[in-house]
Amino acid sequence: MAKHIKETDEDIINNHSPDHQIGLHFAFIVLLVIVLQGCAGNSHLVSYEVSGTQTQALLCKPEGAGPFPTVVYNHGRIVDEIGYTEASFRGYDIKGICEALAADGFLVFAPIRQSGPGNIFGHKEEVNRTIDYMKNLPEVDPARIALMGFSRGGLLTLMVAVERTDLSAYLILAPAPGRWHFADAAQHISSLSAPVLLLVEASDDNKILEDFEMLSQALKEKAKPSQIIMYDRGGGHRLFWDVGYYWDDVRRFLQDNLALPSPGLKKPIASSKQR
Asked: What's the structural domain count of the chain?
């Protein structure tokens, strides 16, 4: 079956008519449904091809029957630089994060970006494309999708958050500056249409702490529903490399906001605290 799907994708890619593009989307969905049916509770690294680009993603599925509330997870830049496998060897436990989210009841899709370490706009396009594809999967509840990102992934989450209006929640963990991209996105925070969880650790890099404060202030000034936490318990930037003491806040935020029947601000939250 997998071989047949791959051959079908290649045929579709060579024909750029609208009907064949629809067929490409369908082939992508069929492939992921096949994987989802066999991955209950576990993580699976899957390959797929869209618009001629071969890419990978980590998939985790909770127990039970869908459609599920879903988290799209944006990894940090270390994966762009050295790859998913090497980053895992060095301690960045995306697999553990994925499986913890699935254990909490969320279907998780963590795409491994292919645009190269410095291509932020390419990264943002990959994130948007991922969300659009996930919304078409029968296992996914399109009205309950959260976007979560760490470091470079946190920056991308913010950049996407100020442009989309169809998601339920955003989780931004120790977002990386990305030169001027962070400040530009923060200036457009008035466009934000869903609650935000913003986390950082007090021993992180000074530039990250400065941008954390910038975004915190922007969220407060625009009265956007948000939970803002600066921890002071150690771990620095690597605190978010795996499931740590911050996880209760992640779990609670997702359960509060993805339990809603539709995306938006129907259950606003607003708090700012240090732990």
From this structure: 1
The reply to whether 8 falls in a domain is no
Q: 153: domain range?
A: 42-274
Cα torsion angle, 199, 205, 206, 211, sign: negative
Residue 16 falls inside a structural domain: no
CA atoms within 13 A on the CB side of 151: 18
Strand 169-173 relative to strand 196-201, pairing: parallel
DSSP state of 52: T
Alpha helices in 206-275 (DSSP H): 206-221, 247-257
Give the strand order in the sheet containing 107-112. Answer: 43-50, 53-60, 107-112, 68-74, 140-150, 169-173, 196-201, 226-231, 270-274
Q: What is the CA 176 to chain-centroid distance, rounded?
A: 15
Structural domain contains residue 48: yes
Each residue's pLDDT tens digit, 214-268: 999 999 999 999 999 999 999 999 999 999 999 999 999 999 999 844 444 444 3
DSSP, res 182: H
Q: What dihedral angle (degrees, nearest 10) is formed by the CA atoms of 21, 115, 108, 50?
A: 20
Helical (H) or strand (E) element with 31? helix 18-37
